Fold this sequence. Notes:
The chain folds into 2 domains: about 25-115, AF1104-like (Up-down Bundle), CATH 1.20.1700; about 120-325, no CATH class. The protein has helices at about 40-60, 70-90, 100-115, 120-145, 150-165, 170-180, 185-190, 220-235, 255-265, 300-305; strands spanning about 5-10, 200-205, 210-215, 240-245, 270, 275, 280-285, 295-300, 310-315, 320-325. About 40% of the residues are buried. The two termini are about 35 Å apart. It is built from 10 helices and 10 strands. The longest helix has 23 residues, at about 120-145. The protein is an alpha/beta fold. The strands form 3 sheets. Strands 2, 3, 4, 7, 9 and 10 form a 6-stranded mixed sheet that branches. A two-stranded antiparallel sheet has the order 1-8. The radius of gyration is 20 Å and the shape is globular. A hairpin with a 2-residue loop joins β5 (about 270) and β6 (about 275). This is Damage-control phosphatase ARMT1-like metal-binding domain-containing protein. InterPro entries: ARMT-1-like_metal-bd_sf (IPR036075), ARMT1-like_metal-bd (IPR002791), At2g17340 (IPR016949), At2g17340_3_helix_bundle (IPR035073), Type_II_PanK (IPR004567). Its cofactor is Mn(2+); Ni(2+). Pfam families: ARMT1-like_dom.
Amino acid sequence: xxxxxxxxxxxxxxxxxxxxxxxxxxxxxxxxxxxxxxxxxxxxxxxxxxxxxxxxxxxxxxxxxxxxxxxxxxxxxxxxxxxxxxxxxxxxxxxxxxxxxxxxxxxxxxxxxxxxxxxxxxxxxxxxxxxxxxxxxxxxxxxxxxxxxxxxxxxxxxxxxxxxxxxxxxxxxxxxxxxxxxxxxxxxxxxxxxxxxxxxxxxxxxxxxxxxxxxxxxxxxxxxxxxxxxxxxxxxxxxxxxxxxxxxxxxxxxxxxxxxxxxxxxxxxxxxxxxxxxxxxxxxxxxxxxxxxxxxxxxxxxxxxxxxxxxxxxxxxxxxxxxxxx
Length: 326
């Protein structure tokens, strides 16, 4: 299920000052909590994952690459629901106490044991194709903004708007399946500044020449949110590394998919709408979940990140990174 290569600690964030780093930043429980009784926070997150089961089951049922998909999708739904209910009775069951990484990992484990490797493949391909057709227009709109501060503001708005396309959320998945979602409308409907930035798990800025970004959901998120921002860094002379998941998980973009997307967006000269992509690298993060544990990243990513001056982890709980170095 996980990457076959050895995983290592992320070199920049895991310093002596980060000795208490935990991959799941939300405190589900404290040492004083009863180990045999779920906390209110654990119950809330367990219910959140329970509510997502119907949308995952529906995606699994429609996976034509898996024989007898409907029957196996039903097994997935029942097994996962049983595990989540077990956590409500005993938070230490199934390797608990539960946190977001464990809840995601158990879901992916059951899907893969039943033969489902990428139940969101069809919708990812569809949304990537739509977003690719809009990419040039989105970057030209950004390029037309002469004021640097306003242009960066607009690019950040694009990142926020793109990350709304998260099919791991039961509510968003329902809206998406009924009405679809518009990237431009999402940009326009963002609340005005000041923003509370909980979409970016880490945002270390030092405009220098190497940028490292971890890219998240397929479609609008990566293509219309992340890539225009990365292109702006390239235009400023930065070296940019985009890191994506090793294996499929919900609708997050994978390393092979990101390589293919970039190849489709480049022109014959290797440019991204007039900006050279010669300083753009795509890396495999080694991750296999929609959340990331920075104690377990690929050796390639750790090497590339070592001298980065700008690091952005973008996403729900982050499955995408941007590295930047000057």
